[in-house]
């Protein structure tokens, strides 16, 4: 039996990305991006599905032998899509899962070790939601608003997520902040206990989420505990065609 047989991996994938239309089907070294994500996830999880509302993506996944679940086109977030997908997957599989890992469809280089680490959070029955963080090791990442930061409690829970570097280091030159305090970048990989997932999709957007445009703040505002696990492995997401070109130029693909 696979160590994580009670956990299902779901990869939300939509075609209509404003910055990169058709992104899941972008060619990366002779394979569509979504295939590379599936292959990485399948090294850890025995059950992995792509959740999409687009026939082009569904056909591409089926062509390489992947599993697909069709979902509504009206979802506002990957979490919402995962919730619907879980209901459909459990009906198709004829069983219940303990937890769901939401794997971003634009992370073709996600490391299996990162997925396994996140799965391990659900060894504890008290874990509701879990995510990963990576220590910030340079000033550029620290002050990049597209790389959200996480403040972590002493017992390993997220206190706050922000596009700004927090805490503020009074009396310290900003160029030295990452050297004087342990800041964390958020890695956009989530795990949810299966019974918690429907509940968090019913939560209304709060003030903090609207300010920062970070969905996870909704869960914190509503009293959820988000367990945080630290990884040292780099995560590379592809948000735009320029991101993909940069990887090619660097010889990474």
Question: Explain this structure to me?
Answer:
- With 253 residues, the chain is of the alpha/beta class.
- The protein has a single domain (7-247), classed as Spore Coat Polysaccharide Biosynthesis Protein SpsA, Chain A.
- It has helices at 33-42, 55-63, 78-93, 112-120, 139-142, 177-180, 197-201, 207-212, 216-221, 241-249, and strands spanning 7-13, 27-28, 31-32, 48-52, 67-70, 99-102, 129-135, 149-152, 158-162, 184-193, 226-230.
- The longest helix has 16 residues, at 78-93.
- The chain is globular, with a radius of gyration of 18 Å.
Primary descriptors:
single chain; 253 residues; alpha/beta; Spore Coat Polysaccharide Biosynthesis Protein SpsA, Chain A; 10 helices; 11 strands; 31% helix; globular
Q: CATH topology, which one?
A: Spore Coat Polysaccharide Biosynthesis Protein SpsA, Chain A
Low-confidence stretches: none
Shape: globular
> Structural class, from secondary structure content?
alpha/beta
Q: What's the name of the CATH homologous superfamily?
A: Spore Coat Polysaccharide Biosynthesis Protein SpsA, Chain A
Mean pLDDT over the full residue set: 93
Report the top-level CATH class.
Alpha Beta
Q: What percentage of amino acids are in beta strands? A: 15-25%
Largest sheet: 9 strands, mixed
Number of domains: 1
Q: Assign a percent range to the helix content.
A: 25-40%
Count up the helices. 10
What is the oligomeric state here?
Answer: single chain
Brief account:
The protein contains 10 helices and 11 strands. It has 253 residues and is of the alpha/beta class. Strands 1, 4, 5, 6, 7, 8, 9, 10 and 11 form a 9-stranded mixed β-sheet that branches.
């Amino acid at each position: 039996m696979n160590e994580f047989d009670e956990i299902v991996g779901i990869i939300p994938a939509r075609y209509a990305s404003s910055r990169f239309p058709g992104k899941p089907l972008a060619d990366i070294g002779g394979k569509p991006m979504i295939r590379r994500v599936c292959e990485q996830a399948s090294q850890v999880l025995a059950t992995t599905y792509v959740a999409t509302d687009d026939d082009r993506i569904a056909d591409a996944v089926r062509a390489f032998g992947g599993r697909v679940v069709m979902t509504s086109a009206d979802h506002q977030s990957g979490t919402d899509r995962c919730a619907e997908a879980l209901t459909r997957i459990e009906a198709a599989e004829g069983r219940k899962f303990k937890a769901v890992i939401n794997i971003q469809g634009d992370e073709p280089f996600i490391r299996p070790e990162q997925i396994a680490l996140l799965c391990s959070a659900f060894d504890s029955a008290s874990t509701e939601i879990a995510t990963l963080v990576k220590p910030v090791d340079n000033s550029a990442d620290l002050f990049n608003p597209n790389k959200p930061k996480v403040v972590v409690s002493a017992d390993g829970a997220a206190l706050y997520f922000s596009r700004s570097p927090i805490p503020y280091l009074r009396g310290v030159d900003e160029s030295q902040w990452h050297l004087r305090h342990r800041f964390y970048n958020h890695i956009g990989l989530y795990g949810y206990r299966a019974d918690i997932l429907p509940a968090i999709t019913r939560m209304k957007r709060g003030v903090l989420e609207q300010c920062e445009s970070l969905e996870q703040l909704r869960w914190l505002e509503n009293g959820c505990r988000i367990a945080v696990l630290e990884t040292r492995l780099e995560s590379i997401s592809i948000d735009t065609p320029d991101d993909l070109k940069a990887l090619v130029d660097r010889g990474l693909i």
